[in-house]
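User: I'm putting together notes for a lab meeting next week and I want to include a structural view of one of the chains we've been expressing. I don't have a solved structure, so I'd like a prediction I can at least talk through. The sequence is below, exactly as it appears in our construct file.
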Amino acid sequence: MLNIAVFVCNPFRERCMLVWDRGPGAVIVDPGFCRPEERDALYACVEREKLQPEAILLTHTHFDHVLGAAECAARFGIPAYLHPDDRARLQEYAAMAAPFQIPAAETDFPVRDVADGETLALAGMAFEVIHTPGHTPGGVCYYCRAAGDLFSGDTLFAGSIGRSDLPGGDYDREIVSIMEKLMPLPGETRVHPGHGGDTTIGAERAGNPFLQPFNEVDADGNVDGISIDG
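Assistant: Thanks for the context. Below is the predicted structure for the 230-residue chain, given as structure tokens.
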């Protein structure tokens, strides 16, 4: 099981996560902090645990998930990993903060593209990139298969899914992403969303109301052809 420290950030209560295995290497998932106390809580944990962040993993580039990305990249001298379909809309998404009286996220930070199916070897951990368009075109989840942890961003929540009515959103693509790429994962997989509480793949198969119209169990115990034995 990975070590995961969660920091609830900004008015949208986005969950920034600091992730490490045995240390000292670590990764930062979706640094959305915008207040000094949020930033300081993250940095204090890094120092307390004697960690050395090696990368920023961005599940998507909505402003509430990237507000602290430039700060983290500069402080630790590390790049941010994201899908190119969201890199193309980074400035547009950063500007969406303005109506909420939040300064636009700084977008001038080093970026490395990720691709669906790629495995990132970072900080002694292996993260499989799962492209899950729907909430945004370049939304991804990061799956640490060895530990059984999935960082789902705003694709999949406990009892819900990411909204698709914002620019670049697509409800049909999101449902396909979840059903074809996430629901086949082992049922005990721990899901760490970008907002709200943690859940498991098994719990969402059984009880997520947004997926129920699609979750028809057949005579072989499969959900739309997906085995649910895991």
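A couple of points you could mention at the meeting. The chain has seven helices and 16 strands. The chain has one domain: 3-227.

User: Perfect, that's what I needed.
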